[in-house]
Input
Amino acid sequence: MQSFLKGEILNKAFTLLSKYPLCNSCLGRCFARLSYGHSNNERGKAMKLALLMEIDKMIKDHEIQDLTQIKEVFFNIGELASPLFSLYYNEGFQKRSCYICGDKIEEIKDKFERDALQILKEKGYKTFVLGVNLPTYLKRLEEDFIVSNDLTYYESIKNEIKRDVGKRIAEKGFTPAFEDAEVELIYDLEYDAVLEVKKSYKTLVFYNRLSRNVPISSWYAKDGISLESSLANTKLYVPFSELSEYRILEEYPLIVEGEVKDVAGYYFKPYGKVQGKELSTIFTLKPTNRTYRITVYSEKPVEGGVNIYQGVYDLFLTVKEPEELKAKINELENKGMVILSIDLVTTSGKVNTLYTILYKG
Output
């Protein structure tokens, strides 16, 4: 019969329904990227009706002589085929469950919408994003179904559920926000439960460290004093930094997940929330060169140094790597100089693009 059907789409639908019982949505999802603006349920129902009309015509035109060859298609189409089936077969119609969703997809959507709305209303959330966790068996079944039937225009069941339920919830006055939602609501199909995952946001701040020996990480704290210990219940992400005995006079970036508050020795200049590509970009922009002010004491005049007090000089050194700075410090000490202090003064390189775009611009 397949060779008599007109159109590649109808032929494909007939082939699928020859092998699998499929509900309207799961059949329509096989062609989800075709006919923009229609639901998968509408696509599936339209194809089933077109198939039934074509089959009926072919029977009436005597192009189908043996009705047993299409009986499976009737059963796999479902209740929509029952009236026509009763016209040609003297037996009861066989009800079958959808091969993919087990005829549960609308029930799943209704429960997801109901439970998600309850959480949004009770917790006072205004913005949301949805997620769906599929059980392993369903993931494998869907993957095998796509591959074995060469379904170019297929859409996953989880995408359909998220999209349709998201539209319903939006119609109730809540705002879908993929980038900065207050909460993510995940429907776990295996456990038949909606999980609430409150979204945490990362904030970009620029900071100066004006006190020495107050490291960012508690790991390097000598007396237990650090930025990390002062910001309890706050996660810190450091793109780059300096040794704790160096003051940092240039604005350095810091990513904070949690509350940002004043800490002795640190001066913060908040920028705002960052995420996604913006966040990953920050971690790729590191200084090419770093300029330090090294204050030394020397009984002899220091070549290239700025005399700021009797025997006290400021030297400005620009290096690319920490090892290079260490080597220069050793060189100064070998010349009889005493290192009094080291300050990071300025940087250059791609990191300055970050300052220009996000802060200074």
In short: The chain has a mean pLDDT of 90. The chain has four domains: 2-88, 105-198, 202-284, 289-344. The CA atoms of residues 289 and 320 lie 5 Å apart. Residues 2-88 form one domain.
